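Q: I'm teaching a short session on how sequence maps to structure, and I want students to see two examples side by side rather than one. Could you give me a first protein with its sequence written out and its structure tokens following it? Keep the formatting plain so it prints cleanly on a handout.
A: Of course. Example one:
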Amino acid sequence: MDAFSIFNALGKFSESVNKPPVSLLEERCVHKQHNQATCDRCISACPTHAFELADGQMTLVAEDCVRCGYCVHACPTGAIVGQTESDKLLKRVAQHTDTSRLELACAYRSTPKIMADPQATLFVAPRCLAALSLSTYVELANQGVTHLSVRGDACADCPIGQLAAQIQETAANAQQLTASHPVMTIDVITELRADSPPVRSIQDTNQHRVSRRGLFQMFTQVNETQAAESHESAYPPTLPPEHQRLLTALESRPDAPSTWASSLTVDGDCSACQVCVRICPTRALVMEVGRKTFRLSLDAAYCTGCGLCTAGCPENVLHVDTQAEPDTTAMTMLTVGEIRECKRCKTIFSGGSDLCPACAFRRKNPFGSRMLVNMEG
């Protein structure tokens, strides 16, 4: 390797080290797409209140971020980008001899002195345990982990310990997904027994011994790594990376329940305006329009529950159903109805009037406006 190549590699390495912990892609945020969006997953869960919403604009105060990693997989549209380093954990687990029983401790806590599971291998996760996403849990099960103990016993004394609720919620959802073959049992440990045995050894995912030759090899492999990360996915590029990863992991688990998926219901008369279809960021909604009828269907596997379609529905008849377990292997019909042509603007719509909803509104409000979707930016 010549001096110029080394200089460029060092520059790239410096950029990766000094880049902000997470980034907010405003164009993907639901609040950028619609001024009535209600999603607040990042705001409600962030332990340091690094996300702020004012006048329909989401902002990230990067200096307040503590790199917990939860928001990266919690965002339903992939608007938050950052490193949870799950790949590092999965790689280290795969390299170990026996990981059928695994114990995970937080990287931000003091070094554990005792074990929750004396038969397990203790790994220190790269981030806060809240960074563990559904896909990470499923991939661990796919790698042969049968018993997983998640060490939350230090959360009570942690400055960001409020994330314990998110850790338990994600683990509970993952338990349902890994209850079929291959089965993995997940235990979130909140308190250790008095007779717990001492730790024999710790596998730290953040500690890697790299030789001088290995360091140069890391630099020469930068382009190869970038090429591997940019491989073509079998799923639409509109799907957030975490959602794509979960779907890929679930391909090995055909019997897994669809508790991870969101569903929609139509409560009332749909006007077939197609606003929901146009605004859906993952293309999960599809409307088929024939000569006399229309059909609105949902691909639940692609729905992330962001709520944009419900915010944009002018008739307010579309609702997110978080309790349903939809069929993620086929399209689900939400509603079907007859259509007609508006006598004024010739738009196809469904309803008993001769005018489409927009023209009917203008007739009653000649000086008003009907803003369906916020298209700023």
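Q: Perfect. Now a second example for contrast.
A: Example two:
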Amino acid sequence: MSVGVRLRDYQVRAIAEVREAIRRKLRRVLLVVPTGGGKTLTSAAVLAAALGKGSRTLFVAHRLELIDQTVRTFYRLGVRQLGVIRGKDPRLDLSQPIQIASIQTLARRRPLADIKIVVIDEAHRSCAASYRKYLFEAYPNAVFLGLTATPCRADGRPLGEDWHELVLGARYSELMTGGHIVAPLVYSTPVLPDLATVHTSAGDFDQKELEEAVNKGALIGDLLTQWQKLHGGRRTVAFAVSVAHSRAIVDLFSAAGVRAEHLDGTTAEDERRAMLQRLKDGATQLVSNCGVLCEGWDQPECKCLLIARPTKSLGLWMQMAGRILRPWEDVQPLILDHGGNFDRHGAPHEDREWSLTVRPKRAGAAPMKMCPECYAYVAASAAVCEHCGHVFVVAPKPAPEPVPVDLALRTLDGDDAQLAFFRRTAKKARESGRMYGWVAHEFTRRFGIDVPRSWLRALKEDYGRDDAWQDAKRARDPIREHYASQKAAS
């Protein structure tokens, strides 16, 4: 190992725990370390040690950026005995003891001989049929080490079907205390997409319906407005729902004089590298992508994310948000969440309880609230917004007034706890002038599931019918009303 590379304490501890699991004859060990914690370096140290024992090993990733990053990591360790298996990559050398391969290329080649250890990067993908067939079944005698920051499927289910042991290498709180990652500043926006009619498919919003909901002029215009107001010169990556959505974002930003570029899976590899280099150098201010930079991409100089993609997937939210958490020149990471993901999943950098058998849970994260003036998320206990100076006034509760009987909500069937809570919360929203989206948010926070669409439609029907509710809403939140009137005019 190179003298210039020193593993962090938690990395040394994680390696020891992985080795202990292997000594207990567990053949598939999943190492969980937050984004920015150095999973690639940790696993490379494991393979470098195996090299000293004469073992042939295989590191598997699914994207060019991950493969290039892994090669650079081995070089940092002083390890040069490696080959790259990926399409027509000129670094191909099957004689080397360490092979770094793309899963797509392995699917078209015969299994390698004498592989003792297989490392799977972004191992939350390992439940896919290609990983099972071309890795687990192709190398039945190998030890598997999985790497991920989010050990769950897109729909939140755990990964116990494919892994035998979970090793928690570090928590976000530990990495932030050690200065290895930086807590981001997160803003919402006054203009959020209406997702009430978007169905769920494979654990996330239906792709086609989601694109129709977000690829609209008013929403894309709000991306530009909020970014111009808040980015503070930070180099930016935008996450879009589709290629068309990403191109629309780039077109609008470019028309406003922003040096913006679009990236998707069909972008040539040389152009992809050049584009990200321009972003790193500052020649490009914003790169909008669809499905390319969600995982494994590492560029500390980029310190702003424009997340225009709503998602029901906790893993995807954490993967996207984690791209900019590494420290760089004391610049605080900035996340502009235009998808309502913070409200849906919580802060991306909060500690969570991970398991191979149960869905992830929050680990006692401090509650946060959104400032109604600037839309930044701040501590729930804050009396004043540290970003805009807004004073949170706790007004005395007014004497209750008679509330009209719900017209649509009363027709809903059932009297179970969920429906009773939904009706009570809708009544509270009407009395206080809150938007109907708050009712859905409170329901999800209470029960951990989305509001049934029929209930939400009934709520929206009552909301639009009740003039008193509309008047209370306008009095409570003139900013949202201003944007709504602009949208209606356009």
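Q: What should students look for in example two?
A: Point them to this: The first strand starts at residue 28 and ends at 32. Also worth mentioning: DSSP finds 17 helices and 19 strands in the chain.
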